[in-house]
Amino acid sequence: MPSPTLKRVAFTTLSGFAVVAVTTWITTDLFASTPHPIMQNIETDMVLVEGGQFEMGSDLTVASKAEKPARTVSVDSFYISKFEVTQALFESVMGSSMSYFNNPNVPVNNLSWQQANYFIDQLNTLTGANYRLPTEAEWEFAAKGGNKNQGYTYSGSDSIDDVAWYAGNANDRAHPVGQKKPNELGLYDMTGNVGEFVIDAYDEGFYRHGPTENPNNAQDSSIGLAHKSVRGGSFAYDENLSENYRRDFASQNIIMADMGLRLVRDAE
Question: What is the pTM (predicted TM-score) of this model?
Answer without folding.
Answer: 0.87
